[in-house]
Each structure stands twice: as C-alpha cells, then as structure tokens.
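In this section we walk through a basic example: taking a raw amino acid sequence and producing a predicted 3D structure, encoded as discrete structure tokens. The instruction is simple. Fold the sequence below.
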Amino acid sequence: MMKNSSKKTDPGLREAVSRLSLEEKISLLSGADFWHTRALEQAGIPALTMSDGPHGLRRQGQSSDHLGLQASNRATCFPTASALASSWDRDLLCRVGQALGSEARDQGVDILLGPGVNIKRNPLCGRNFEYFSEDPLLSGELAAAWISGVQSRGVGASMKHFACNSQETARMVSDSLVDERALREIYLTAFEIAVRKAAPATLMSAYNQLNGTYCSDNRRLLWDILRDEWGFEGAVVSDWGGVHDRAAGVRAGMDLEMPGSRGRFDRELLQAVREGELSEALIDQMALRVAETALRWHQQAPAQRDDALYAAHHALARETAAQCGVLLKNEGGILPLAADQRLVVLGELARTPQYQGNGSSLVTPTQVSSLLDGLAEHGVSPGFAPGYTLDGRTDQALIDQAIDLARTEGALLVCLGLTDLDESEGYDRTHLSLPQNQLALLEALARERQDIIVVLYGGSPVEMPWLGQISALLNMYLPGQAGGQAAADLLLGRANPSGRLAETYPLAYKDVACSAVYNIRPWQAPYVESVYVGYRYYDTAGKKVLFPFGYGLSYTSFEYEGLSVTPQGKYGYEVRFTLRNTGSRAGAEVAQVYVAPQTKGAFRPAHELKGFEKVYLQPGEAREVCIALNRRSFALYDAQAADWVVEKGTYLIRVGAHSRDIRLSQALDLPGRKPRRGNEADWYHQPSGLPSIMDFESLHGPYAWVAPAAKGGYTTDNSFRELAVTSLLCRLLLKVMERLIAKGTGGKVDYGNPQFKMMMDTIAGCPLRCLPLYSPEMMPVRRVRLIVDIANGHLLRGLRRYLRRG
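The resulting token sequence is shown next.
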C-alpha cells in the first residue's frame, strides 16, 4: 500500500476560489443537504455525494437519516469491523475495501464514511461492532489496508471518529478525560498509522469533548497533531450534527459541516468575519481545501448499476466471513463435522441470522444466507427447532421442543448470540450476558448432552459461565450477508478456521480495568486505566481471562522455529523466524510479535503488539517470516518533551500465537534516555485490581467533577433528558416524542424495539442545539431557546425573546 503522493494546489483552482465572494466561500464549508456538499458551478467546483459505511454501502435516495432507519439501496453487507479485525489480514481488508469502492462508484458515491478506528476501551460500548480492536497497531494497519482498497477505486474514505469516542451513552456531550501518554500511545496511534500509510480523503471529527474541548473545536487535535505532525492533507468533516461552535471549529481546522444547518452556521461565520473575530484567510484556506477534495474525488461518470458486481462480492463476503470466524474451543477434535453425520440444529439465529449491528451502518443486503441455508448448500438437512425467540421472552414450549429434538441421535449445533437490541448506535449495553431465554435453552440442553457445539454471533464479547458445559465454540462475530454459508464451510471443514481475537474476552465485566467508572457519570468519562486497555491490563496484572488477545484455534497445528533479530540502524530491527504447518490440513497462522520493556523506568504494559503477519501454509510447508520493528516499536510518549523517547535498557522480543502463548524470545539492549519514573500512583507500575480516581489524578492532574445540569444552569448543550429532571414541560415533550417515534417504529412505545430505543435514546440524549438540524420545522433554533428558558424558570424572558424574533 502506498500513500497517495502529495500534490500542490492547482493554480487555476486557487485563482477560481480567490474570485469567489466571502458568502460563496463560506457556503462551501457547509453541506447542501444530508448527503451532498455544495457545488459552485461558476468556479467549476462540483458537489460530493457521501454515504454511510463502513462494512457496506448505505446509499439513500430521497429519504435520508443518520441512524439507518430509512430505506437504502441494496449493497453487499460484508462482515462488520469487529469480524474483519479477527482476520488479521491486510490483503483481505484491502480486497474488501476495493469491493466497497467499486460498489460506491456503481451507485454514484464519492466519499464512503468509514472506517471506524476507535479503540475498544470497554466491551459495553454499543458501537464496538463497528470498530476493529483494542490494539492501536492492529486497528491502524487494518484501517490503512481498508482505506487503500476503497481509494484505489477512485472513491474517498472518511476515517472516524477523531478521537476518544469510546461510548454511545451521552456521546454528543461526554468529556473524555485522557492523560497524554494514553492519548498518544493508544487512542491516536491507529489514526496516525492510517493517515501516514493511506492518506484518507477526509477525516471525521467525533461528537464528544476531549479534555474539556469538543473535538470539532479542538485545534490541537485537528491542526497541531493531525496536520502539522502527521501531514494530513485532506478535509476534516464534522460528524452528522456534530458542530458545537462553528467559528471555533473553523479556527480549529474543522473544514466541512455536515449535513448543513440551512444557512444558520453560514450566517454565524459571515458575522464573525465581518466583526473581525475570524480571519477571512482561514475561510479562504478551508474553502480551497473543500474545493480540492471535491475535484479530487467527484466522479464524472454517471452511476450505472452492475448486477454482476454484487454476485461476485457475495462470494467475497463468504470468503471473508470464513477467514474471520474464530474457533475458540474444540474439545476432542469434535470439529470439523463429517458431511454424512446426522445433525440437529437449535436456535432461532440459525434460521434468522444476526449478521450486522443497528444504526447508521445498517446495510440493505443483496441477499442473506442463514446457517441452515449454508448447510443445505452442502447437502446437509438437519433437524431444526428454534428453541427461543429473538425478543428475549422465555417460551418453555420452545425449550421443550428443542430438548426433545436434542435427544435424538446426531451432532448437536446450538446457535446463540446477541440481538439488534443488544448492539446499536446511540446507546450502550448494560451487561455482558447473552439473552436470558438463550441461556435457559443452553442450561436445559446441558442436562441432556455434553457434546454441544455452539455457534456464537455478536459484535463484542459476552461472559461465558457456560463454557465448561459445551465441547466446541465457533465465534462468527457479525459475519455479514454470507455468514451462514461461511459458518457451514467452517463447521464442515470446507474452510479451516484462521480468525484470531482482536480483543480480549474477560471472565466477567468486573474484570475490565475501567468498569468502575464507565458510564457511571456518562457526561464525564475519566480514562482512569491510562494505557492499560485490553490485554495491556490483563497481561500486566496477570489476570485470568476467558480468551486472550490474539487467540484462536485451527484444524491444523503450527510450530515456530529459529528466531533471529537483526539490527537495521539505531532502532530498526528485522525479526525473522520460521513458521511450519505440522498438521494434515492447509491452514493459516497469525504470527504476532510483542515487545516487552524491562527498563524499570516509566510505567509500561508487560508487552505490546508491534508486528504481525498472517501466513498461509500447506501441510508440512515451512516459510520464513520477516517482521520489521522501528523506533516507535520501543518508544513511549513523553509529554514534557512532547516527543517519542526510547528508554535505555533491555527489551524482550517475543514471538507467539497469541499474547499468552509466546513461542520464541530474544533480549535486546538498546541505547536511549536514562529510565525514569514519574510521580504517578503505584497502580500504574504494578496494576492490580481497579484504578481509583485518586490514582488517575496523579497522572492526569486534578480536575473538577462536573455536577449534573440543574435548573437555572441549562443551556442548549444539555438534552431533553437532562431538562426533564426538573422541567414538567420537557417531561411532557418527551412523552410526545415517544408517541411520534412510535408511529414510525411499529406503532407503540416499546423500548424492546431496537429502532424505537435507538431513536429515543438519540433524540432524548442529544444536545438541544442539534435538534434544529434533525427537525428544523418542529424544532427551529428560537423554539429550542424558548424551551431552555422555560426549563430554567425564565418563562416571561423566554417568551419575550421568542416573540421578538418571530
């Protein structure tokens, strides 16, 4: 993958933009409608068409929304990012990106909104299925491959959400409090890798605040780091409705407001320039950048649907899902199944597959295969019983029917997993358990059989107190539209499982390092664990886990031999070793290289992933693997020096099959800065248990706890849900909203309906300042301000302002 070459601005375009009026230049900085930028024909600047992603195209026609509620064109639904990351395969991610880019071109889309590279800080995040990993290197490398694939087809990518957007609860106002080392080493690194390697066309700023400043207003983030340090040359786009202060955003480097505010923010910018609060030179610079982006990525050819393209992409989706499936348990080699083996399949998910999450990434697939479909394609006709419903209700009659069938002869497959209600944009999970009606079925089956094979669906980890009661576990994550065929391919041995976990599966939620603070006060999120995210915490603390980072089984076996670490300059090294397939089947192994500092200076995780390679081998075949390390492989970020530094001392190079299965190791002695310890709490040097707020303040510095919003202090940055605590009017308005949303989502107020819940959580929890963007007729700006005045107890003042502007 090559970074796009830097091109100087076309002098003709610069001249054309310079001739525009101030009003025209400002108009370029705001969307024309929900999915399009503005065109200025007199300057030769076309409009761009954007569409949601990232695991498929959500191209909408006349209807438009950012939550996946309205209809969209059919497109291939590939496995979600949580599944794609389990492939650990850069080439595969590039091929998926190429397919997505081809479909975008086919449907007239210029910019595809993806990938999402936010770090999986906590497994409860409702949108984790859209993100790659808990590890920044893996996330960044796969994002770069995906972006390179998409952009190779002449379609731009919009990497998101920049940055520290790790929760859905209060996502539009929450303040992520992050120390500098965690920010640089964990939360920005994936973005940095992808920017440097793949040069995405645009980058999307996040809704949330970062250390007290909204990301869309954050000059240090959007300009100092992104542009000056990393050399990003594309346009920065707001998340949809994610503009906090438009003038501050311009000063920070946020180029394009989407979806557009019907001229509201244009007027604010015009006034700010005329009053001298904002430099017109900044407007010129951003208008030129938006114009360059439009000319670079706008498609000249009209969209023409190519049906053959989608048939080929379904086959790729099947291949991809098979490479992403992770075999987590295979007691006694019960898998793969023999083709002529009698089989019983239980679980509604075998018939009604869960293959993607809910929200803006929701794709209308070209076709969908269930596990039953996949088995039938291989000539297998199992007995089937649903065993449970997908609405969470326990039905004893369904369980009894399933038990009767399970008592018959044959292998027993049980499909379990999360549902639409469990994983969605707009809200977070509240626990890591599977639905109780599915657990009731499994418990009843375990009393009858000990040879249960579970096929698991879901975009993030679940607790498994039942793991000892089953013989095999195949985790398909959210495998896309061909997931049923891929699962059948893996179960029957037509494909060999090669997926490896891109995140740790804890024994229980209480084991997660940030579990004590996550969403406790969702408007203020202290990242108390600092760099100890995922395996960095579990492996350093020596904590037992369900499945470690990088883990996955195969139908064959692999040996690692002959490690050599060869210097390539001061801090560059080539790590070489031989990987051998010692089994009887062709298969793939993900070789992982970890660096373990032994310097005893600054606090560090026990080891960190610094390189990986997926290697495909025939039975008996051996291949030398070479993985390069560089200065960043050994460095930590020093906030005082504002630079990456290497501490002098010993570093272990560890090569293995996962973070707790190290096969080869070699020590290196490196030159560098004398190791030194800071004034942070002991917890960060020897993490055990959970960190406290006091521990975190020793690292981050003291900060004030923000009290919940209260009457007299409400602003348009607060939500209906916050105002409703003290305002009868807002409580009544919430009831009205419930009824209005219910009309479009099944006809009744039902928080068990994932679409209804997502809409209500989004509308009730978003800042009031965003409502004029979502519903300008019902909630114009002056009406929103009136509601805030009334909630603050200023009815007469609010009415006077409202009528004066009427």
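Looking at the output, two observations stand out. The radius of gyration is 27 Å. Residues 280-297 form the longest helix (18 residues). In the next section we compare this with other chains.
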